[in-house]
Amino acid sequence: MGDLAWQVLALLVLAAMVAGYVDAVVGGGGLVQLPSLLIALPFASPVEVLATNKLASALGVTVSAATYYRRVRPDPGTFVPLMLAAFLGSAGGASLASLIPKEAFSPIILVVLVGVGAYVLAKPTLGAETALRWQRRGHLVAAGGVGLVVGAYDGALGPGTGSFFVLALVGLVGYDFLTASANARLANWATNVAALLVFVPQGAVLWGVGLLMGVANILGSYVGARTAVARGAGFVRVFFVVVVAGFVVRIGGEVVGLWG
């Protein structure tokens, strides 16, 4: 970290703070934080960038998950199987992270985001209130399936994971946006911990940068979680659409070469 200019560190801190806020409200903070690390750390390998991003995110999501848990009280029948499956999926995905080339990150994320945004816009009443589609065993299977698939993506790539958890819990399971965000934060905490258990023994984490960004991420996460809880599901839905649209424009421009 000592080799980085203070201006670069300041930008990383700002990016982590914004990422923490976005992640706490609708997920997707990694789409702010990961590109900033890729730009600031050109000397780092893809797995080092992913691991450092995971450390900063893990610190922030711990705070937002605790805030949501205290204020929303999500159902253990959802978040327990969701977290367990997400943990396993993330550990498996993280073991494959070193096989993914850095230049593949943006195209993969862009395709998924376009699909997510189109789906939400096509269903204006989606996530306005909770209407669960399954009960008992069916609900457990659905929650576990969401956790396993999205968790594997988080371990392998990461950016947008929280948003994908939210969308799956709203569109597939039937939660409103606020309750989905509460469950997503708990699942995201599990995926971050699982990935770090793989990355840390590999020596992939850049601790100085990760801890500095983690402190900033904590601040953003705390403010974001309290804002989401106070404003409710309607605010979370609108924020979700705006964030996804912004990321599609930014990443799409990068993919087609409009900017670096």
From TrEMBL:
Keywords noted in UniProt: Cell membrane, Membrane, Transmembrane, Transmembrane helix, Transport
InterPro entries assigned: TM_pro_TauE-like, TSUP
Keyword Transmembrane belongs to the record: yes
Transmembrane segments: 78-97, 104-122, 138-157, 164-184, 204-223, 235-253
Principal subcellular localization: membrane
Subcellular location: Cell membrane
Superkingdom assignment: Bacteria
Pfam families: TauE
Signal peptide (from-to): none
Membrane topology note: Multi-pass membrane protein
Alphabetized PANTHER family for the sequence: MEMBRANE TRANSPORTER PROTEIN YFCA-RELATED (PTHR30269:SF0), TRANSMEMBRANE PROTEIN YFCA (PTHR30269)
Record family assignment: Belongs to the 4-toluene sulfonate uptake permease (TSUP) (TC 2.A.102) family.
Record protein name field: Probable membrane transporter protein
